[in-house]
Each structure stands twice: as structure tokens, then as C-alpha cells.
Specification:
The complex is a heterodimer of chains A (142) and B (154). Chain A has one domain. The longest helix of chain A is centred in the middle third of the chain and has 15 residues. In chain A, helix 2 packs across helix 6, helix 3 crosses helix 5 and helix 5 runs parallel beside helix 6. Chain A has 142 residues and is an all-alpha fold. Chain B is of the alpha+beta class and 154 residues long. Chain B has a single domain, classed as endopeptidase fold (from Nostoc punctiforme) (Alpha-Beta Complex), CATH 3.90.1720. The mean pLDDT of chain B is 92. The chains are: A mainly alpha (142), B alpha+beta (154). Chains A and B meet through helix 1 and helix 2 of A and helix 1 and strand 4 of B.
Chain lengths: 142, 154
């Protein structure tokens, strides 16, 4: 069950109205408290079904659209959806494809890269000292 | 709906004319005036054009892809100028930390106080809201934080 306050819904709608580009909308929503909660507290499956539900509505007010974009970002940047197993149909929103592109470009890498050990270079040493060791005064032999 | 829009070198610019203004937009615009009391509202809210549409397309459409802005700046020979040199008619582009052009406007005046403080006044459009005459940084925080001034040298 997703619970967002009236203030959070209004904040998302305002960002939608004020944003001039998809990237600025993405950045603004990503830093909002609502999307932060959606990313870390909600399961991707819940977000996906919620996204499908709200984007299927005939009513498309700023509150609904702001929420839809917020849920889309919450899903794409969800801590439990790092491999994007839960893939929304972002084309349902005008700026959806661009938002998805930005989300995927800014998400942290999830692949583990195994770097094989690099063999240490062989260093040959000789017993013969090449430089004089200067000992501190107190340690010098008699 | 898209209109035919090109740079001076006839490169196409992606754009779209948007829907009618909603009740939410109108209410939000009224709230904006309270949030930014020093900004002078110039026009009523409209969704037909956005800030980049105002700056680069004579208010005819929305330029919503920030990747179009460097193309326009380059093709239309906009040269970057120092804030001190900016005069009425020059333009300002607001960039985020990643170089995304998230806002733009037209310089209407530039005043220097005591040879220390420079305060350019900008005419820009705030999303679906109206146009405002405002101080460089007296605008919604989603815009910027970096600003660059340009003069067209066509």
C-alpha cells in the first residue's frame, strides 16, 4: 500500500509543471522525499502494478501525472530493481522514454567485475649493497 | 503537435506545442507569485511554449530536449560572454551539474552596483506558468545552478 501525503503529491505535481526538460524533471523528482520513499520502501512489483493502474486512467491531472512520473522513477531507480526485472511501459507518459534513458544512465552499475590478479613484477636483488647506509649518530658503531 | 523549426543552418529542432492550460497550472501560477514576490509577472500562464521556446523559438513552441540547445547555440553563432558584459537582448542559459540546459531566458537589463554587485534582470518563462521578469537567481530552485550568458553573433 503506497501512502503519500498531500504535500508530497503537490510537490511532484509542481515539479512536473515547472520542469522544462525531461532531465530536469527526472532530477527534481529524484531528489523529492516522495520518490526517495518509493525507491527504498516500496517493492518494485507494487510500483509496477500501481504505475500500470494510474497510467490507464482517463483522468490525467497534474497530480496524477506527477505521481505517475514519480512512481516511474521510483521503480526504475528502486533498490530492489537494480537489474530492471520489473520493466514498466514508459511510453505511456510523454517524457517516459527520456526519463527511462536518464534513469538507466545514472543508475549505479550492478555487475561485479572480477579482476584477475596481476602478477607482481620480478625484482632481482643482489647481496652487494650499492649505497652506503647512513645511521643516525647514536647508532653508529665505535 | 510539432511545427517546422530550424536553426540558421537549417538543422531541424525537435519541438512540440502542448495542451491547454489546466486549473492546477493556474492555481500553481498564483502560488508562484507569492513565493517569488520580487519577480514581476509579464504574461498569463500558457502551455504553448516553454522557456527555451521563448528564448530560441519566438514563443511559438516548446523545445523540451536540452540536447537541442547546444545545437542552436552553435548553429546560430551564440558566443559566451561574461556576466559583466551582458546587455538587454543577450540570453542566459541555466545548466545543471551535468551540463543539462534546464532553463533559459532573455536579459532585459544589467545593473552594476558599486562596481561589485552585478544584477542582471531576466525575462523567462517558468514551465507551464507565465513569463516573469526576475533577478538571475530569483527563480524556482530546479533551474541552474550554473548560468552562462551568450550573445548572438550572426
Amino acid at each position: 500500500m503506497i501512502r503519500l501525503s498531500k504535500h508530497e503529491l503537490f510537490e511532484m505535481a509542481t515539479l512536473l509543471v515547472v520542469a522544462n526538460t525531461p532531465h530536469s524533471l527526472f532530477k527534481g523528482l529524484l531528489s523529492s522525499s516522495a520518490v526517495t520513499r518509493l525507491r527504498y520502501e516500496e517493492h518494485p512489483n507494487t510500483l509496477l502494478s500501481y504505475f500500470n493502474q494510474i497510467t490507464a486512467r482517463a483522468e490525467r491531472s497534474e497530480i496524477v501525472m506527477g505521481l505517475a512520473y514519480g512512481v516511474l522513477i521510483g521503480l526504475l531507480m528502486n533498490s530492489r530493481n537494480a537489474d530492471w526485472r520489473f520493466q514498466p511501459d514508459s511510453t505511456r507518459l510523454t517524457w517516459g522514454p527520456q526519463i527511462e534513458q536518464h534513469a538507466k544512465a545514472s543508475a549505479p552499475p550492478t555487475q561485479i567485475l572480477n579482476i584477475s590478479a596481476i602478477p607482481a613484477p620480478q625484482v632481482s636483488t643482489s647481496n652487494q649493497s650499492t649505497s652506503t647506509l647512513i645511521l643516525p649518530r647514536g647508532m653508529q658503531g665505535n | 503537435m510539432t511545427i517546422r523549426l530550424e536553426t540558421s543552418k537549417r538543422t531541424g529542432i525537435v519541438n512540440s506545442q502542448e495542451r491547454e492550460i489546466s486549473v492546477f497550472d493556474l492555481n500553481w501560477a498564483r502560488k508562484l507569485m507569492r513565493q517569488f514576490p520580487k519577480a514581476i509577472p509579464r504574461t498569463e500562464p500558457t502551455a504553448l511554449y516553454n522557456c527555451h521556446g521563448l528564448t530560441f523559438a519566438s514563443r511559438r513552441t516548446r523545445i523540451f530536449l536540452s540536447s537541442e540547445i547546444p545545437k542552436i547555440l552553435n548553429d546560430d553563432k551564440y558566443k559566451e560572454i561574461d556576466i559583466k558584459e551582458a546587455k538587454g537582448g543577450d540570453i542566459v542559459v541555466y545548466f545543471d551539474e551535468n551540463g543539462d540546459a534546464n532553463h533559459s531566458g532573455i536579459v532585459v537589463a544589467n545593473t552594476e552596483y558599486d562596481q561589485r554587485l552585478i544584477l542582471p534582470m531576466i525575462c523567462s518563462k517558468w514551465g507551464n506558468g507565465g513569463e516573469f521578469i526576475h533577478g538571475l537567481n530569483d527563480c524556482p530552485r530546479i533551474y541552474g545552478p550554473q548560468t552562462k550568458f551568450y550573445r548572438c553573433a550572426l
